[in-house]
Amino acid sequence: EVQLVESGGGLVQPGGSLRLSCAASGFTFSSYAMSWVRQAPGKGIDWVSAINSGDGATYLADSVKGRFTISRDDARDGSKNTVYLQMNSLKSEDTAVYYCNYRQGYQDYWGQGTQVTVSS
Known about the structure:
Layout: E1 3-7, E2 10-12, E3 18-25, E4 34-39, E5 45-51, E6 58-60, E7 68-73, E8 82-87, E9 96-104, E10 107-110, E11 114-118
Parallel strand pairs: 2-11
Antiparallel strand pairs: 1-3, 3-8, 4-5, 4-9, 5-6, 7-8, 9-10, 9-11
């Protein structure tokens, strides 16, 4: 069974930092690109960042470039199949539920999400 479990969200002041984690299981993590997306209150889902399998190339939405970094830990024994999102210089507009995601064929898989609130 595929499981994606996000953690690390919370309340942070503008300019602060958070590190989100997404622990993956139930599939061959090292073979798939992983993404982070977010959904702000009352809005649609926005793609935030992605990281390839293999070469580990990373991609960021323009709105988060220079502030967010995506990374992954592909443990050979599967013990640390995790994707991270380091978020610095947070702004109020970053407030959203953040989800990790991957696609296998035509099927998208999502975690339960973690709330990030940026407020003073």
